[in-house]
Amino acid sequence: MSRLTIGWVALPLFAGFAVYLIPRLARPLALAAALASAVYATLLFLREVPLSLGLLDRFGVTLLLDPLSGFFIFTNALVTAAVILYCWDTGKSAFFYTQLTILHGSVNAAFACADFMSLYVALEVISIAAFLLVAYPRSDCSIWVGLRYLFVSNTAMLFYLMGAVLVYQANHSFAYVGLSRAPLEAIALIFLGLLVKGGVFVAGLWLPLTHSESESPVSALLSGVVVKAGIYPLMRCALLLPEIDPMVRVFGVGTALLGVAYAVFEKDTKRLLAFSTISQLGFVLAAPEVGGFYALTHGMVKSSLFLLAGNLPSRSFKELQQVPIRRSLWIALAIASFSISGFPLLSGFGAKVLTMKSLLPWQVVGMNLAAVGTAIAFAKFIFLPHRQFPPDSQSQPLKPGFWAAMLVLLGGLVLANAVYYEAYTVENVVKPLLIIGIAWIAHKLIFRQANVKLPRTAEKFEHLIGGMSLMLILVFWMVFAWVAN
């Protein structure tokens, strides 16, 4: 298993560089790397004990692979495969597939490593590959959005690197477990870097513009897997170090409420999805011990929704409510929206039930409010008008690989429903149905007519950096008030 693991980590990077030598094999190589990750994740689920590897010595790479990392790696595999299928006949260049494959490999590395220096390298490679994918259209807007993402990300990683150095100074090792013996400043600095990178709470307000203005396949990758490379280490640290767990849970609840508060008032489809991503990351962090399953479900839902949004005739809900959309698109939109709302028969139901059962008492009210808000936000998609178009209709044609991608993602939502089949009790089924019912009534009576436009001041570039400073003060205060006691 050790050699297999090293080969699996290296495979996407070799495949990515091989594409430059054999451009015509760009798509098969990229798809093969994603499928290999799916197979490897399945092997992790079948192992009875976690796999721990220490390469080189205490200065070297530490890997920890267990079912938690298996969920994240499987998410990366499914989302990457779906995006490749979606882009298959769209004329994307070998450069696009190279960056996509390198991004896939570096995200895998972030899910596998258990030391701060290896994680730093993986996150920096992710930043560069993501920037090149965001800027791929070479338009002024895409280049600016990409540079903005790169600057914010690299600034955050400077704080992270200072924290990693403090961990090494205290332990002569970069391993995650050394965080408990490191100075409290190290926890605050590392947390800030990961919170920004993962798009958590106000540190994640760079995310709506980046995810909404990227091409739909890139948005699917960013929301489906890339941001999870930032929150996965937070979950891993919370599980390894009990004193970190309360902080992660607090940020989980705060993030879930902040994201959904924006999403329910948003009038733009892609921005709604981006704010929902912030909120759903909060659900993953709110219960770190079961967050892997929620991350898998969210990855499939959000990737499918971004790909669907890219095929709608407009981004504006106001315009979409005036002209019926194609019924086949609406059915796919409804399946994904039902899943994220927690409707039974889809994996979102089991993921929400499992998360809600793992909450601490003080989290319950906040997370239930976030669940109601999620159902309100996605009622906007469910209640869009739709009709069957005749075969010779002049409506916008779908991408050739669109339905293959939907089969992977929406089919995954149905199959993953079996992961937590114990959720199907009368009590567990009734509660989400009540939440969805209340949310739909609120949508019809209040939010559909509401004309509230939330300010975007906090999303401005200069305010993102200022917000990062305020977050650092908040994290320092939390660390000294919480962990020190």
Account of the 3D structure:
By secondary structure, the protein is mainly α. The protein has one domain (1-389, 397-484). It has 20 helices and 4 strands. It has a two-stranded antiparallel ribbon. Helix 6 (140-171) runs parallel beside helix 20 (461-483), helix 9 packs antiparallel against helix 13 and helix 11 packs parallel to helix 17. The protein is globular and about 65 Å long. It starts with a helix and ends with a helix. 55% of the residues are buried. The mean pLDDT is 90.
What share of residues is helical? over 70%
Amino- and carboxy-terminal Cα gap:
41 Å
Low-pLDDT segments: none
Number of domains: 1
Please tell me what the overall shape is. globular
DSSP E strands, number: 4
Mean pLDDT: 90
Subcellular location: Cell membrane; Membrane
Family: Belongs to the CPA3 antiporters (TC 2.A.63) subunit D family.
Transmembrane segments: 6-22, 29-47, 67-87, 117-137, 149-168, 188-209, 247-265, 272-294, 329-350, 362-382, 402-421, 433-452, 464-484
Membrane topology: Multi-pass membrane protein
Main attributes of the structure:
globular, two-stranded parallel ribbon, transmembrane helix, mainly alpha, transmembrane, two-stranded antiparallel ribbon, 485 residues, CPA3_Na-H_Antiporter_D, Cation:proton antiporter
